[in-house]
Amino acid sequence: MTEMVIEMRNNKYLVIYEELAQQIQEGKYPAKSILPSENDLTEMYSTSRETIRKALNLLAQNGFIQKIRGKGSMVLDLKKLQFPISGLVSFKELAGKMGQRAETIVDEFSLIQPDAEKMKHLHIDKSEKVWKVYRIRKIEDERIILDKDFLIEKYVPGLTKEICQNSIFAYIEGELGKKISFAKKEFTVEEPTAEDRRLLDMEGFHAIVVVKNYIYFDDATLFQYTESRHRPDKFRFVDFARRMDSQVF
């Protein structure tokens, strides 16, 4: 068996995931409907239940479905942009999945000496240089996200304003060849600041969802701190947790 055939078999769950995600987006499986059962999908795609389960787990992680015991996989409402809390996805990847018209505006791009707050967030000292990037995210012509990114320059060399307008993650993984592995996230709801109101379309809104991201490479090196400020009406933050069997000590 060739390596190509092995790779195709190993990645079949991704093909199934993409096809089901597209069908959900196109309305073949509307919100609150139930996907075909695992057994039916196994027959439809001529594959194993393990492969189907991997595809369904990926759909759940990315906010397309919710698994309900005794019922199956229920399709979620995609009218709001859905951020998977436990996942790590770029704005460009998210907008592509949701099929909505998106634009990024780089409001500020500079290489700075970090202040005490940034040194604390990034676990660095004054000797390090940091990229400071403020990006306004537009969905359907509305300015609804302000991303305030701070990246350690020695780990992300050669960054440009054009790269920031496209995708920093794509540059790091595609051009620098580094693997982005995981992030620690903190969620709060706050009053909008004067900066939020200046840069985002916040008229009539009195709260903003703030997500603080500490982002790491696969060797556990912290390279980026991001404060992402979301207008609350356009987003739903989703996560799916499994209750573990209780243990008696």
From TrEMBL:
Keywords: DNA-binding, Repressor, Transcription, Transcription regulation
Domain HTH gntR-type, first and last residues per copy: 10-78
Domain of life: Bacteria
Biological-process GO terms, alphabetical: negative regulation of DNA-templated transcription
Any Pfam family hit: UTRA
Gene Ontology molecular-function annotations: DNA binding; DNA-binding transcription factor activity
The keyword Lipid metabolism belongs to this UniProt entry's keyword annotation: no
Name the UniProt record assigns to this protein: Trehalose operon repressor
